[in-house]
Design brief:
mainly beta; 445 residues; 46% strand; Rossmann fold; 5-stranded mixed β-sheet; globular; 12-stranded antiparallel β-sheet
Length: 445
């Protein structure tokens, strides 16, 4: 089904002129007989997955807890752009609406307020849902609650307003900093951090410049009164350029420099280039992806202490192959990643092999199971100091510990049963008051 911005804009304009809630809709959170049953999967949209807000504002449907009870399945995902994010909403009809699939997208700028983003997402979500309510035989008006009762504004979301003049030529700049201080009887800690970035994203090019740094100093004393001091300095600067060669091929280049107390590096620098092949079109990224990357780097290291290989500095070449696949479908999500990296002067001795993934499956009504993990063979820690690590280094995590392998596994399940409807929103005592008896910022209830 073709989707045209002009068509969407017309629908948005019509929706904006519909009667307000007081004129055309009876408020209420009870299940609505004959209303469309909607199941929303928006975990892929991260912070924008504000289900309570959607249920409060879009009240002409029944929100259900389980996919099996729905007539409309919506998958919402999010991708970052150079100046904000774009949200993709895939609408998939079920039961009597089987075969009626659609897709809408909403873009916003980083300069938009949180309320502007939320209202824009909610409005477009409601318009997509309204189409399926009509297909089900319902008649309007389909009203979305507005921030202020009675207020109706004819305002299209960014991306549907036609061409705009951009004096910044797609460049977006960010600056940030933070100071943190903590004082206790036996421990004082202060931390200073700063970051900056510049990004430019177009259909053909993606450019990124970033820098960050932090200084942390902790002082205190052990139980026997012996004082200690822990100082950590971390910093990096990176530049990346990616170019779209074709529908499936991309080329990239990156360079950077860093300093790290934990990794025994006074200074490190690298420059590299590589290509990526996408087995699926990049436009399908939010629903399915499979890519293969081939990269080569030149890396320089200047160490704080002599390494276990009797080096104070060195320059090495590194090659890497990285593969990844991921799916987000009605049955759940699956992601697998594998990589092979090696220093080219002696790849048998200095290399790293990694494999990991996560699977989340809807097994039956209300029953979900997830499993994830990763395993790595690690033979590339050329920066480990020659001198033995002290107990303080190990306990405080001041130094990277030597290891030949790494294994992580996790699994779990959730089972929900009871009423299929999920319309009611009750925000009473939604946030606790002051500190709790146990401390740590938990609410008092």
């Amino acid at each position: 089904m073709k989707r045209r911005s002009l068509t969407i804009a017309a629908v948005l304009l019509a929706a904006a002129l519909l009667p307000n809630p007081a004129e055309g809709q009876t408020e209420g959170d009870e299940p609505r007989a004959g209303a469309l049953n909607v199941y929303l999967d928006c975990e892929g949209a991260r912070w924008a997955c504000q289900t309570s807000h959607f249920r409060t504002e879009i009240t002409f449907v029944n929100w259900v807890r389980d996919l099996a009870d729905s007539q409309l399945h919506i998958i919402m995902t999010m991708e970052g752009t150079g100046s904000g994010d774009v949200f993709t909403m895939d609408f998939m009809g079920r039961d009597d609406l089987e075969g009626n699939d659609d897709q809408l997208s909403y873009s916003h700028s980083d300069t938009d307020s949180d309320d502007m983003r939320t209202q824009g997402i909610t409005g477009l979500l409601a318009i997509g849902i309204a189409r399926y309510s009509v297909l089900l035989g319902q008649t309007g008006p389909f009203v979305v609650n507005t921030p202020e009762s009675g207020e109706r504004r004819v305002e299209l979301p960014p991306g549907l307003q036609g061409d705009v003049d951009d004096p910044w030529d797609y460049w977006v700049f960010r600056l940030g900093g933070e100071v943190e201080y903590e004082d206790e009887d036996l421990k004082d800690e202060r931390q200073f951090s700063a970051n900056l970035s510049a990004n430019r994203t177009t259909e053909m090019w993606k450019l990124s410049l970033s820098g960050r740094g932090s200084y942390t100093k902790a002082t205190g004393q052990y139980s026997d009164g012996t004082p200690y001091e822990d100082v950590r300095e971390e910093g990096s600067i990176d530049g990346r350029v990616f170019y779209s060669l074709s529908e499936r091929w991309s080329w990239g280049m990156e360079a950077g420099a860093a300093t790290s107390t934990r990794n025994n590096q006074d200074l490190s620098g690298d420059i590299g280039t590589g290509v990526e092949y996408s087995f699926f079109p990049y436009r399908d990224w939010t629903r399915r992806r499979m890519t293969l990357q081939g990269l080569v780097y030149a890396r320089y290291f200047d160490y704080e202490e002599e390494t276990q290989f009797n080096k104070m500095s060195e320059t090495v070449m590194e090659g890497a192959l990285r593969w990844g696949i991921g799916f987000r479908q009605p049955w759940g999500t699956a992601n697998l990643n594998a990589s092979a990296e090696a220093y080219l002067h002696d790849p048998k001795k200095f290399h790293r092999l990694s494999f990991g993934g996560r699977l989340s499956i809807r097994i039956a009504r209300g029953l979900e199971w997830n499993v994830g993990g990763s395993i790595s063979r690690i033979k590339d820690q050329i920066y480990i100091p020659l001198a033995d690590l002290s107990d303080e280094d190990i306990l405080l995590g001041r130094r990277q510990l030597p290891t030949d392998s790494s294994l992580r596994l996790n699994t779990g399940f959730s089972f929900t049963f009871g009423s299929i409807y999920n319309n009611v929103v009750n925000n009473r005592f939604g946030y606790g008051g002051g500190g709790s008896r146990g401390g740590g910022g938990r609410g008092g209830f």
